Amino acid sequence: MGVLKKFEQRLEGLVNGTFAKVFKSEVQPVEIAGALQRECDNNATIWNRDRTVVPNDFIVELSTPDFERLSPYSGQLGDELAGMVRDYAKQQRYTFMGPIKVHLEKAEDLDTGLYRVRSRTLASSSSQSPGPAGPVGAPPAGRAGGYGYPPAAPAGAPPMPSAPPPGGRGGYGYPQPAGGQRPPAAPAPTGRARYWIEINGTRHQISRATLVLGRSTDADVRIDDPGVSRRHCEIRTGTPSTIQDLGSTNGIVVDGQHTTRATLRDGSRIVVGSTTVIYRQAEG
C-alpha cells in the first residue's frame, strides 16, 4: 500500500473527531502530503552511494482563510504529516540530519485553496552523519544546514559544492544563487493575464507556463481518480492557451470533443477520467 494511501486511511479515522473542521478547508491534508513528498524528491542530496539526505524541517504556507481553519489543529496535523514524510523517506531510502518537523504559516499573497511548501535541513547536535530521523518534535539546538545552505559534511564525506548545480533548488524551494543570498518568492509570472483551473470547487493557480495534471504525486495538480493516468495532460498558458494529452490511457475531452490537443478559452470544460476541470483566465 502506498504511503499517501496509508496517510489518507489514518486521517479517515479522525474525520468525525478532531479533524472534522479541517476537511472543510479548501486545502486538503492529502494535497499537502503529496507536496511534501515532492519537496523531498526535489531537494535530495546524494552524500555517497548509500546515503541520500533530504530536508527534515518543512514550512507549509497557507492563505489566510485556510490557515485560520487549519492552525487550531497544527500540532496534530503536523505530527501526521511528519510521520508520512518519515514513511516516504523509508520507502525511498532517504535519510535525515535530524528530527522531522512540519510547521504551518500564513501567507498573505496566497488565495484560498493555494499553498506553498518550503524546506531546509536542520542537523541535530548529535548528528555526525546522515541517519534516520529521531522522534517527531521540535529540532534540538544544533548546527543548521539552514534554508538552502548545505549541512556540515560528516567526517570522511566528499566536500559539498558551494552552490547547487544550475537549475537546482535552494532552501525553502527557491533557487540558490552564488553568494548564498536567497531571493524573494515570485508566486506568479508578470503580465496582465491570470490563469487558474477549478476542480470540484477548488481553485488551483497556474503560476508557470505549463501545468501537468495527473494521478502521480509528481504532477503539478494531483487528481485522485482511477481513470486518470499518472501524467495525464499538460496545460500551456499563452495566446492562446492550449491543452495537450500526454499519452494517457483514457484521453481528454475538451468542451464535449474527444481530442489529443485543443485550444482553451475562459470557461473551457476539460474531462479527464470522471473528473471535470474548468479552465479560467482573466486580464490583470
UniProtKB/TrEMBL annotation:
**Statement: the UniProt record of this protein carries the keyword Protein biosynthesis:** no
Please note every region of biased composition (Pro residues): 151-167
Q: Where is this region: Disordered?
A: 121-189
Q: Can you tell which superkingdom this protein's organism belongs to?
A: Bacteria
Which InterPro entries does the entry link to? Cell_Proc_Reg/RNA_Proc, FHA_dom, FhaA_N, FhaA_N_sf, SMAD_FHA_dom_sf
Q: Which PROSITE patterns match?
A: FHA_DOMAIN (PS50006)
Q: Which UniProt keywords apply?
A: Phosphoprotein
- The answer to whether the entry has keyword Phosphoprotein is yes
Pfam families associated with the record: FHA (PF00498), FhaA_N (PF12401)
Kindly indicate where the leader peptide sits in this chain.
Answer: none
The segment(s) forming the FHA domain are: 211-259
Q: Where is the composition biased (Low complexity)?
A: 124-142, 174-189
Full protein name = FHA domain-containing protein
Species, as recorded: Streptomyces griseomycini
